[in-house]
């Protein structure tokens, strides 16, 4: 195959490891990585140009410029809108968790965890705002305003999740197992969801549809305990030790 033709073809095997590279090729690729890592608002300006958003919105550029005099002002407003929790089905879902506590089934908590997590996961995966926020995450290290907006968004989402978990925990009589707290459990679950959304968007058929619910039940089991149960005062380290070595001789070990 001529080199010119090969230059315009994609890889023969998308899952193949990177080919052997000479120093110059590796230098180009490493430079590309550095540029991606240094992505900034200028890249957003090029991606969401007035022409592109006007075409996507099926409106004229004149209509666009009657609202924004320049591209920079539009991107500033886009960042504000994109990081506003009230403009996201996923964030709204977290805020609704507290109100769902009264409807959870106390007889089958595992099924309820799967139901609630399936609904939450679906709201996030079907939300284009979520993927756009991931793009913003790529530029936050180089843009103080983006970093501050994302910090506020994540804090709002974590507080809403912690509030919902607290209310549901009261219904079921469970609380975080030390060293976890409601806040750290919320951070864990929100981060876990975001990571799984990113991974499964690339390879959605790798795991069964029940996967996210299975993960949530397993993780929840590890980080909660019965409220004020004198027979369950161990922390997560001891839970794991017993899973590996078995329970201590002589029955349940009480913490002094």
Could you write a compact summary of the structure shown?
By secondary structure, the protein is mostly helical. The protein has 13 helices and two strands. The chain has helices at residues 3-7, 23-37, 41-47, 50-57, 61-65, 71-82, 89-100, 109-125, 128-139, 144-172, 182-202, 211-223, 236-245, and strands at residues 174-176, 224-226.
Keywords:
Tetracycline Repressor, domain 2; two-stranded antiparallel sheet; mainly alpha; 256 residues; 2 domains; disordered N terminus; 13 helices
Describe the overall structure:
The chain has helices at 3-7, 23-37, 41-47, 50-57, 61-65, 71-82, 89-100, 109-125, 128-139, 144-172, 182-202, 211-223, 236-245, and strands at 174-176, 224-226. The model is unreliable at 1-15 (pLDDT under 50). Helix 7 runs parallel beside helix 10. It folds into 2 domains: 24-76, no CATH class; 83-245, Tetracycline Repressor, domain 2, CATH 1.10.357. The protein is built from 13 helices and 2 strands, in the order ααααααααααβααβα. It has a two-stranded antiparallel ribbon with strand order 1-2.
């Amino acid at each position: 195959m001529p080199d010119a033709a090969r230059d315009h073809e994609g890889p023969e095997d998308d899952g193949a490891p990177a080919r052997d590279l000479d120093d110059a090729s590796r230098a180009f690729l490493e430079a590309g990585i550095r540029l991606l890592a240094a992505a900034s608002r200028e890249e957003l300006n090029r991606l969401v140009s007035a022409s592109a958003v006007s075409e996507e919105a099926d409106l004229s550029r004149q209509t666009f410029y009657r609202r924004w005099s320049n591209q920079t002002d539009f991107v500033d407003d886009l960042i504000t809108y994109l990081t506003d929790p009230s403009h996201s089905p996923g964030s709204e879902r977290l805020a609704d968790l507290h109100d769902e506590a009264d409807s959870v089934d106390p007889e089958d908590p595992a099924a309820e965890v799967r139901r609630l997590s399936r609904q939450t996961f679906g709201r996030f995966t079907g939300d284009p705002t979520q993927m756009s926020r991931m793009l913003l995450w790529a530029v936050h290290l180089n843009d103080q305003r983006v970093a501050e907006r994302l910090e506020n968004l994540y804090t709002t989402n974590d507080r809403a999740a912690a509030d919902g978990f607290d209310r549901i925990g009261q219904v079921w009589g469970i609380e975080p197992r030390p060293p976890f707290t409601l806040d750290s459990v919320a951070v864990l679950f929100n981060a876990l969801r975001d990571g799984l959304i990113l991974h499964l968007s690339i390879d959605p058929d790798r795991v069964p549809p029940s996967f996210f619910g299975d993960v949530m039940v397993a993780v929840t089991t590890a980080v909660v305990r019965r409220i004020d149960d004198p027979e369950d005062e161990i922390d997560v380290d001891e839970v794991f030790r017993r899973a590996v070595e078995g329970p201590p001789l002589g029955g349940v070990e009480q913490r002094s």
